[in-house]
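Quick question about two entries, pasted in order.
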Amino acid sequence: MRALVVEDYPPLSASLTQGLREQGYAVDVTGDGAEGLWYAQTSAYDVIVLDLMLPKLDGREVLRRIRREGNTTPVLILTARDTIADRVAGLDLGADDYLVKPFAFEELSARLRALIRRRHQVATSRLTIADLEIDTGARTVRRAGQPIALSAREYALLEYLAHRRGQVVTRGELWEHLYDFAAEPQSNVLDVYVGYLRRKIDDGHAIKLIHTRRGLGYVLDVEGA
């Protein structure tokens, strides 16, 4: 999953970025609203964490503009403003959630997962495809009841494919949602990671779940389902 963090307090921005990356997110981060708006307009994100008090462009204006342009990316407002009027104003502008500083990172992380599930119309933190079980809260994976150890990048790839179960996901979409601006596209890196994932998920199982659609991309599902 790919997240945009728009927060102008460097220590908080750094801790958020580190925490999210440790959870497998690709993270773009900026400290001013104008650049945050540019990021939101030029890239596809799974979730945006947005402060309100920002230099150059206020967070409310950032939110107002991206919603006016039809951008439906889930937005979590992160702010010290804790009055009911502030919360109502933020939600009415199109925010999907509102978290007041100070906060526990665990709560922010859980709220982001909930926003992503809602976007993909998934009701719980457990995704099940045949005998494959993915717990997006604990970030654990099992196949036929046996735990599977995945790297952060492998897990992020699997989770994104699982949220798009049964749909062809192009290499371009995968790159856009799994890597941030700092990453340099390489022609075969996604194929390599899909290969790693296929060996861990499908090897030794009669029912294969990861399928290549040549010239198109990848599908996670039971073949013919």
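Here is the second entry:
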Amino acid sequence: MANLKEKIEKLFEAGARWLFFNPIKVLVVSFLFIGCLVYQIPSISIDTSSEAMLHADDPSLLEYNRFRDQFGRAELIIIAVQAPEIFNARFLAQLQSFHTALEEEIPYVREVTSLINARNTRGHNDELIVEDLLEGWPQEKSIDLPALKTRVMGNPLYVNHYISQDVRVAAVIIETEASVEEPVAEKELLQSFGEGEMALPGGIGESHYFSAKEK
């Protein structure tokens, strides 16, 4: 045991002596090592989701996945749009353009909801009408802005949900997909035929739940 201790001490002594007499080499190697670590900083990612802390076969995670398969993700993205006057034809046109752009240009979006397509349920004579709040505007019909404001502010389902109490902030609510389907390369599709497997239509491969990669 004493012999082993002496060998270790001599090894440390020799290492310290080499470091002392080769300062330039030590600095160069140290800077190269630090540079490699710094170079990798942009690619560092941290998954802080609760499901990442559970095992794949955890009963709680399996139950949550069944919920996501049926109802989508539990998380929502809410964008607050501020304006001096919400019930203004120009602002509503800009809100509609923004709403449409989110639906068409942002990937993995399941549904976008705002004043543009908020559900408007009303009775007319003996008929129950369910439609979008601004359905058919402006292509098919004009809009009575004072009447729209009265209808929205008188509905507790709209106030502090799609619009603030002071009528200066409108909300755009984005619900993302629960799962994402990865496309399969043409080469992989041809290989699947060779293995006697059925290729999926449209080149769709395996799906996985919405993760930090899609965020």
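Reply: Helices lie at 2-21, 23-39, 59-71, 89-105, 145-153, 186-194. The longest strand covers residues 169-176. Hope that helps.
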